[in-house]
Design goal:
alpha/beta; 2 domains; binds zinc ion; Alpha-Beta Plaits; about 40% helix; six-stranded mixed beta sheet; Aminopeptidase; about 425 residues
């Protein structure tokens, strides 16, 4: 029997298998949500997932990356170099041969809960209320990781073997720059294409902006406030720096014409997130530090974005003698997410769109993501062209009462299962 005539049956079987296991899926996701996998505490959830993957007969690899070795890599960007308590997990499902390989990547680190008073649900409870499964990380992105796992379970449950290999990566550290995905890539895990089920609300993200953190230090000269004219206020100088940053943001965004950004007011924002300076109301401040996040367009290089910021800051000295003599210092520090861009007409993106249409009966929205994912890193470190599509409500990620719709997790699982079947071929 040819693949084409067999596939409609496979599709119906996968749909049926998943539809009968919604309760089981909710339990799995609730169990995952109860693992408090903030940075440095990812062991419990990785062990839980490792056991699930072993049950599928996959070759499971659970390891704590060597921070020293990792941090010497040019693509490394993380606030820490010790990954004790933060194991990475990868597993391989070997195909029967002759098919293309596919990689499913998802992160299981979550951001902190924040003020627990602002939650009406238990952030670590995994409670299911009216179809919403609540908890920190439910949307970003344990729902997506669960969907990937369910997809593999569904294929196996339906007795479907694939021709190509599937790699499943459950990584740590995405929220601080992707050291987990870098470590998995350096360990040799790669495939012909990949998918990250980050919370896109079931939209397809062929492109994502990158971002990087910067610090601007503005120098002044201290004096008594009663004779402030003898000093130079770093706060006043910083106002000019803020204006220059906003001007640069405007300039950079005026050049973006990609239709995928048509509905986005500022496609690649530069956000100033932290300001600090001065010590005393009656003193002229001699130092102000500004910290921010610079968006990098999907088709742009990190180096290009850095060079533009650097030029904008050094130009300040042309209009201001003080700044010419006491230049504003620019540092790039901490986290960084590489941009990622796939041609919306590429086979990977087209195939995903078709599969979503088949499963949902309507075309998915196609969006350029306003935030970075590990897709850029998968491309740069492992050469895996990666698309982003998954369940989850972006608006609740990193917020109190984060939740994911269980129905969307099931839909994503079906899409992923079918995608694996199409891409890897039936064995
Ligand atoms: Zn995420």
């Amino acid at each position: 029997m040819s693949e084409k005539t067999r596939e409609p049956n496979a599709l119906a079987a996968i749909h049926q298998w998943l539809a009968e296991r919604e309760h089981q899926a909710a339990q799995l996701l609730a169990q995952m949500t109860r693992c408090r996998s903030v940075q440095g505490q990812e062991t419990e959830i990785q062990q839980l997932l490792a056991a699930q993957l072993e049950r599928l007969g996959m070759e499971v690899d659970l390891w704590e990356p060597d921070g020293e070795e990792l941090s010497s890599h040019p693509l490394f960007a993380s606030p820490r170099t010790d990954f004790a308590g933060s194991p990475n997990l990868a597993a391989k499902l070997p195909g029967s041969g002759g098919g293309r390989s596919f990689l499913l990547n998802g992160h299981i680190d979550v951001v902190p809960v924040g003020d627990p008073e602002q939650w009406t649900q238990d952030p670590w409870g995994g409670n299911l209320v009216e179809g919403r499964l609540y908890g920190r990380g439910a949307s970003d992105m344990k729902g997506g990781v669960a969907a990937s796992l369910l997809a593999l379970q569904a294929l196996q449950g339906c007795g479907i073997r694939l021709a190509g290999d599937v790699i499943f990566e459950s990584v740590m550290e995405e929220e601080s720059g992707g050291a987990g995905t870098l470590a998995a890539s350096l360990r040799g895990y790669r495939a012909d294409a990949g998918l990250i089920p980050e919370p896109t609300g079931l939209a397809v993200f062929p492109k994502q902006q990158g971002s990087l953190w910067f610090r601007l230090t503005v120098h002044g000269r201290g004096a008594h406030g009663g004779s402030r004219y003898e000093g130079v206020s770093a706060i006043e100088k910083a106002m000019g720096v803020v204006a220059a940053v906003l001007e640069l943001e405007k300039e950079r965004n005026s050049r973006i014409t990609d239709p995928l950004y048509a509905a986005t007011p500022i496609p690649v924002p530069i956000n100033l997130g932290v300001i600090g300076g001065g010590e005393w109301p009656s003193s002229v401040p001699d130092r102000v530090a500004l910290e921010g996040r610079m968006g990098v367009a999907p088709d742009e290089t990190i180096q290009n974005a850095q060079a533009q910021m650097s030029r904008a800051i050094s130009k300040l000295g042309q209009k201001d003698g003080w700044l010419a003599e006491h230049p504003v210092e620019l540092e790039w520090f901490g986290a960084r997410w590489l941009p990622c861009s796939l041609d919306p007409e590429s086979e990977l993106v087209r195939m995903l769109v078709e599969v979503v249409e088949e499963v949902r009966g309507e075309s998915p929205a196609m969006v350029a993501a306003p935030w970075g994912t590990d897709a850029g890193l998968l491309g740069a470190a492992a050469g895996v062209p990666t698309v982003v599509f998954g369940p989850g409500v972006v608006a609740t990620a990193h917020q109190p009462d984060e939740y994911v719709l269980l129905e969307d997790v099931m839909t994503a699982a079906e899409v992923i299962a079918l995608m694996l079947l199409r891409w890897c071929g039936r064995g």
